[in-house]
Structures are given as C-alpha cells and as structure tokens.
Amino acid sequence: MALEEIRSQLKETEAVEALVAAYSLEVQHSLKANVDFGGIEEDIAIQCPAPGFVLSFSKGDYLHIKQDYTEDWLIGRVVGSDTGLGFLPSEKLLQKVTDDKRGVAEPGDVLYQVIVYQKAPIVRPIVLMGPSLKGCNLTDSLQNALLGVLTRKFSDRLVIVKSKASVSSLSPRQAYELKSQVYEAGKSNHIVYLDCDASCPSEISNLELHPLIVYIQVSRIEVLNKLLRSTCQDKSKRSELLAAANYLYDLPRGNFSLILTDSFLDVASRKLELFLESYWISTHPPIPPT
C-alpha cells in the first residue's frame, strides 16, 4: 500500500472519530443556507477528510454547527427530525463552489455575489402575530391565551424575550440589543418566545432573527369585523385594525411558519403544541449509542 494511501486512510479514520465525538458537543452556532449543496454528489466532496460523510442541504435549510474541523469543513447537521452529523462546507469553500457553478459573466451581464450562508440563532424565536394589531383587545386576548398554554406546556423549556418597543420604532441600538438577547437565549437550547409588537412579517425579518411566525387568523373577514365592533368602539381605530387584519390575511402563506384558523382555543393550542414539539425534536436530536 502506498504511503499516500495510508495517510489518506488515517486522515479519514481521524475525521470519522471526530464526527462521533461531536455528538456529545454543544451546538456552537447556526447558519441558514442560501444555496443548494449536493453533498457527496459534489466534485468537491472528494477533498473532505471523510468523503462519504459529506451532507447535502437545500436553500432555506438551517444548519447546526458543532465544530470547525478544518479551514474548509465544518462538523454539523441539517436541522430536522431525522438528520445526523456530517461534514458541511465552510463559507469560504461553499462560496468558491457556488461561484464556480455560476461561471463567468458574459459581456454586458453582471453577476452579483451570492451570500451563501446567513448567521441565525441556534433556536429560532417563536412570534405570535394577528389576527390584527397588538393593543387590540381581540389580538391581545388570543395571543395571551396561547402564550398561557405555552407557558404551562413548556414551562421548563421556555425562555421569553420581550421587546422594549414596537419593532417599527426600535432604534438601531435597541434593535441590536434585541437581536443579541434572542441569539443569547437561543444558546440555552430552550424554546424562545419573542414577545414583540410587529404589524407584519417583514418588520421582524429586518432584524435578522429568522423567526417562526405563527399567524392567528380569523378565517372570515366579516366575522373578524363583527368581533372588532364588539371590542373596539372607536370607528377610526376599528378601520385601522380591520385594514391591518386584511393585510395579514392577504399575505402569501409562505410568510408564516404556522397558520391557526381554528375557532376553538383548545384546538388551536393543540396545533401550536404539536408544531413546537416537532421543532423541539428537530433541534434536539437523540445522541446515538456509542
């Protein structure tokens, strides 16, 4: 056996041992993938210390990173209910792979650099939104009722982060502090509930918090209007609340991670519980026996 082949085998053995050992390590940080990566199907996989353990992922996937193994390879996993550890390309390597695939721009064309990874909280925060604006009795009562259910169900697994002001009025310093609080809370590996006043998903997305937005929807606008009439006597304020509710109602469903349309609180609560239990499992995979 050639010396180079022996070295390659030793290198792979060490890499696999590091992979196994990483199961007992804490998650160091999290990334959101903005491009697809084909794992062992990629030409670059052969350069990995353990080519058979290179993971694939899709644009939009979140990755939990356990260790920066080399300059080019990270040890981590794709956040999901049935995913194991493997090797993932570093930002520098993935950028090179992505740029090589895009090729050279034709004369007159402009190729903008793709940001291949975005930093994300280890645990993405849960945000309740709707059916209309906060400050509305209907909105506040529904959201408080669901938060009460979460507090009882996940009492020992829940961290609450509260915004000091409405999201749209946060100063740059306040926005930075809120982001830092959410990222710090995510390190606890608990479910993070972000208590904030936001009128639409885009306001929160500007904070780069990657939230799981749960939309509480009254499925029929005429029913919502009736409810608002009974809880808000100010006609101009009621019109504002109804306009906000209509805006949320008309947004593409992809803006939300979960939509609750149930008329009964216990049914909506159960759906929210199942959703969060599923997310909990995806962020807390079992450690395989050694």
UniProtKB/TrEMBL annotation:
The record's listing under Pfam families reads: Guanylate_kin (PF00625)
Kindly indicate whether the keyword S-adenosyl-L-methionine belongs to this entry. no
PANTHER family (UniProt xref): VOLTAGE-DEPENDENT CALCIUM CHANNEL BETA SUBUNIT (PTHR11824)
Which organism does this record belong to? Amphimedon queenslandica (Sponge)
Q: Where are the transmembrane segments?
A: none
Q: Does the keyword Phosphoprotein apply?
A: yes
Q: Which GO terms describe its cellular component?
A: voltage-gated calcium channel complex
Guanylate kinase/L-type calcium channel beta subunit domain: from which residue to which, for each copy?
A: 180-278
What protein am I looking at?
Answer: Guanylate kinase/L-type calcium channel beta subunit domain-containing protein
Gene Ontology molecular function: any one: voltage-gated calcium channel activity
Which InterPro entries does the annotation name?
GK/Ca_channel_bsu, P-loop_NTPase, SH3-like_dom_sf, VDCC_L_bsu
Which keywords are on file for this protein?
A: Phosphoprotein
